[in-house]
């Protein structure tokens, strides 16, 4: 993927974050699972089907139980994938690793409002390519402004 493609696909993930029902206890996040040829395999957003759904989790779950990523697959997430989770047994970082995804692209590092996130570090340590696109972070903060005020 080129940098231009990464920005286009990450912008789509940010657009999906706007579909997330607002929550006082969780971020609004959008995510895509994209094949190496640029085909979008799945989309997800926070609270897509259930009040505890995370965006990456919802997107990966839509591909079926035990789905394995084809070579070159990238997950695009508006927010750094979670590494700590109280509502479900597996974090988004664990789900991405279990699926065999090779790359993760995100716009905004998760601030320590709810937890101390180490998703990017854990994914890199596992051998994934992790790309942060901070120039799009303000758009993600805007979707989550209700959590950042005051």
Automatic annotation (TrEMBL):
Residues 4-130 form the CMP/dCMP-type deaminase domain. Pfam families: dCMP_cyt_deam_1. SUPFAM superfamilies: Cytidine deaminase-like. It comes from the Bacteria. This is dCMP deaminase. It comes from Pseudonocardia alaniniphila.
């Amino acid at each position: 993927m080129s940098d231009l493609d990464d920005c286009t696909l990450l912008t789509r993930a940010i657009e999906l974050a706007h579909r997330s029902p607002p929550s006082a206890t969780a971020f609004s996040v959008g995510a895509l699972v994209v094949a190496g040829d640029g085909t979008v395999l799945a989309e997800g957003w926070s609270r897509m089907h259930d009040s505890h759904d995370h965006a990456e989790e919802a997107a990966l779950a839509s591909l079926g139980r035990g789905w394995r990523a084809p070579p070159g697959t990238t997950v695009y997430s508006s927010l750094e994938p979670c590494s700590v989770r109280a509502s479900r047994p597996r974090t988004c970082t664990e789900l991405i690793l279990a699926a065999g995804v090779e790359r993760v692209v995100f716009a905004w590092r998760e601030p320590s409002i709810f937890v101390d996130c180490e998703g990017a570090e854990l994914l890199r340590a596992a051998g994934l390519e992790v790309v942060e696109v901070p120039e799009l972070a303000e758009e993600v903060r805007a979707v989550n402004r209700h959590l950042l005020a005051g």
